[in-house]
Structures are given as structure tokens and as C-alpha cells.
Q: What sequence folds into this?
């Protein structure tokens, strides 16, 4: 844990094996960590910096072995207190009730789901499917996949600008970012960035999207106002 006001380390919390994805629920001050090799999600109390629960995940809708999947991406909807975890390898998305720390269901999505993001304004959830080159669109009110959007090659991460209703998806295999309209579930643009883009973050106030290019050692900056890109 890092104190954002001083940029100092305040705690190290022991979780499961090979922790990867992480998400925070600001409404409950709980932190969720996906542990790839433990097939679990650690629930951390943000007040005490202690693990208060461990949730087993990693099972597709038909499997009986609960340790077959690999949890990777995590997202939280603060308005519903639901936690969403991608299960890489079982092609499913685990939905956890944040109030009870239990898995409610596992939804079938695309091949090798990687990252997940929530749009609280619309109660929609989005999952990148690395091997399907697609974005699954899930209506969280009914826990059902309502659309699959074809994006670039090997989509990895994604980020949402809720004020614009736009999703940005990094395509690791095609060195691009797909820009998806949330209202229509249509790709409205593909922006060329650096080599092997992975991490992505949106600054809604600053009107920019930032993309980490793993192999070119750079960050691409995409303006959300005019259609321009710069790389640093």
C-alpha cells in the first residue's frame, strides 16, 4: 500500500500466489486482488490493510474442478457491490457478490478473457478476449452477454471514459487501440500506437488516453478531443 499524499510505502500485504489484477471499491474501501496461481481473489480491508477474505474462482460454467481457471483481470461496480474476475483459460467471467464474498455465477465469454471493466452509469461490463480478438459486452442487470465486438489482434487491456461513453482497447498483436462506442457497440476508430501496447488509462478531465507500449519502451498519448496521437 502506498500513501498517495506522500508517495511512501505504508504496508506490504501478503496475498495469494502470483497476484496480478487489482481493483478498489471506493464505496466500501475494499481491495480485490486476483491471484493467478492460487486461483483465488484476496479481499483486503483498506482501513486495516489486512486480508479479510479469500474467494476461490477459476471455474467455467460447466466444469467441476474449481482450480482450472486463472484469474487475471478484476473490476468492481461500486453501485451494485459486484466484483468481476476474468478466468483466463476457462473462457469465463466470475461474478462475486461483494457483500458476501461468494461467487454468484460464471458467465461464458470469449477465448482467453484477459481484462474487465465496468461502466457504472449503464450497468454494463466489458471483457477483452485475447484469442477471440473480441470484446464481450455484458448486461450486468441480467448477467448475460449481449454483444461481441470484433477489435484488433490480441486485445489485452481496456479503459472506459464514462462521460463520453467510449471504451479504449489495447491490441497487443496489431499495435493499435480500438475505440468503441458504448451506445452502439461499434468500433469507431483504430488508433496506431507503439509496439505491443498493453496497459491503458483514461483521464476524463484531461481529455487524454495513455497507452503503455511494452516493446518500444514508450507511452502513447491519445487525445479524446481531436483525433491525434503522440508517443513519448
A:
Amino acid at each position: 500500500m502506498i500513501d498517495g499524499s506522500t508517495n511512501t510505502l505504508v504496508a506490504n500485504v501478503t496475498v495469494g500466489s502470483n497476484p496480478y489484477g487489482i481493483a478498489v471499491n471506493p464505496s466500501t474501501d475494499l481491495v480485490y486482488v486476483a491471484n493467478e496461481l492460487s486461483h483465488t481473489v484476496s479481499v483486503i480491508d483498506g482501513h486495516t490493510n489486512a486480508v479479510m477474505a479469500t474467494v476461490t474462482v477459476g471455474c467455467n460454467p460447466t466444469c467441476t474442478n474449481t482450480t482450472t481457471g486463472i484469474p487475471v483481470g478484476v473490476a468492481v461496480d461500486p453501485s451494485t457491490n459486484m466484483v468481476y474476475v476474468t478466468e483466463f483459460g476457462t473462457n469465463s467471467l466470475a461474478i462475486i457478490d461483494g457483500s458476501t464474498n461468494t461467487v454468484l455465477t460464471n458467465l461464458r465469454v470469449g477465448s482467453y478473457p484477459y481484462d474487465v471493466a465496468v461502466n457504472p452509469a449503464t450497468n454494463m461490463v466489458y471483457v477483452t478476449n485475447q484469442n477471440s480478438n473480441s470484446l464481450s459486452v455484458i448486461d450486468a442487470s441480467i448477467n448475460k452477454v449481449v454483444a461481441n465486438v470484433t477489435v484488433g489482434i490480441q486485445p489485452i487491456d481496456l479503459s472506459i471514459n464514462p462521460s463520453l461513453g467510449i471504451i479504449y482497447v489495447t491490441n497487443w498483436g496489431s499495435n493499435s487501440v480500438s475505440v468503441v462506442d458504448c451506445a452502439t457497440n461499434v468500433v469507431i476508430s483504430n488508433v496506431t500506437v507503439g509496439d505491443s501496447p498493453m496497459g491503458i488509462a483514461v483521464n476524463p478531465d484531461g481529455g487524454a488516453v495513455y497507452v503503455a507500449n511494452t516493446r518500444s519502451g514508450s507511452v502513447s498519448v491519445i487525445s479524446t478531443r481531436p483525433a491525434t496521437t503522440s508517443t513519448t
